[in-house]
Amino acid sequence: MDIQSKIILVSGPTASGKSSFAVYLAKKFKGEIVNADSMQVYKELNILTARPNFKQKNKIKHHLYGFLSIKKKFSTGQWLKLASKKIKEIRNRNKIPILVGGTGLYFKALIEGLAKIPKISATKRKQVTNLQNKLGQIYFYKKLIKIDPKIKNFVNSNDVHRSIRAYEVKYYTKKSLLEWYNDTRPPFSNEEFIKIYLDCPKDYLLDRIKVRTQKMFPKAIKEVKKINSIKIPKSNSSTKIIGITEIKNFLDKKLNKAQTIEHIVIKTRQYAKRQATWARGQMKDWKIISAMNTKMSSKKLFN
């Protein structure tokens, strides 16, 4: 296999050891690492997002980590533009780009491209959201299928967010969301990617989540105290970071330490489950290796 011409993608559930494995690959193949995690872009959140530590960064070049304020919105489209640029820069240095993270949409955009849908105003988007709230998801979805029958097998009837997006796109652009996606051209060819997914037994992953949560808890308290004074718009994805709400409740004495850690572990485990569900549906052609022994499991991929 001609590794030098490839782009290596590493995904897997949270706490599966993706960052350490990416560093191992970067050392082995003279690579540089690009972040593909939507929460690790925020500079104020280092501990809660489990960003790679400085020891790892000093050995290997890391890109697109901790460069954005949590007050800023950051879209998949913005990430794709920056990541594509970094990939080209890394290749120009005769290094291998290694993209690592748990944000499935980022990888999907990189592999399949991102539809260049015309911008729809916030006012118009709000009108569609209000309509969905008024009708409820069952009747709203029926209305969506009436104006855009093509979308039926593309958007799940229970997916509120994508249903609203599909409706607003069809209503205001007169073109189905599916048609926009079909007209999309990806920035790189599929043959350029080596796609690796780290698989974890449930008990193994839960143990790792528990250990990580307990270890990060003291520093995470300091981190949350710092961001408490920052006004973050509720629509920003940074407000969804696991641990912020739980630690705020701890600081307000609504939860004790044990309860706070338990709540964070439960939410993290649920998030890992959602990531695994996404992978089963969207990453069927990825090479699955065991997270319990990544070095041994990856040998057959590169030999």
CATH homology-level superfamily of the largest domain: P-loop containing nucleotide triphosphate hydrolases
Order of helices and strands: EHEHEHEHHHHHEHHHEH
CATH architecture descriptor name of the largest domain: 3-Layer(aba) Sandwich
Main β-sheet, spatial strand arrangement:
3-2-4-1-5-6
First-to-last CA distance: 7 Å
State which percent range the strand residues make up: 5-15%
* Outline type: globular
Instruction: Give the total of domains.
Output: 3
E-strand count:
6
Range of helix content: 40-55%
Overall mean confidence score, pLDDT: 92
Q: Give me the CATH fold name of the largest domain.
A: Rossmann fold
Features:
Histone, subunit A, six-stranded parallel β-sheet, alpha/beta, Helix Hairpins, 303 residues, 3 domains
Walkthrough of the structure:
The mean pLDDT is 92. A six-stranded parallel beta sheet has the order 3-2-4-1-5-6, sandwiched between helices. With 303 residues, it is of the alpha/beta class. It has three domains: 3-115 and 188-199 and 283-302, Rossmann fold, CATH 3.40.50.300; 122-182, Histone, subunit A (Orthogonal Bundle); 202-276, Crystal structure of tRNA isopentenylpyrophosphate transferase (bh2366) domain (Helix Hairpins), CATH 1.10.287.890. The protein is globular. Helix 5 (122-135) packs across helix 7, helix 9 packs across helix 10 and helix 9 (202-227) crosses helix 11 (257-282). It has twelve helices and six strands. The protein starts with 6 loop residues before the first strand and ends with a helix.
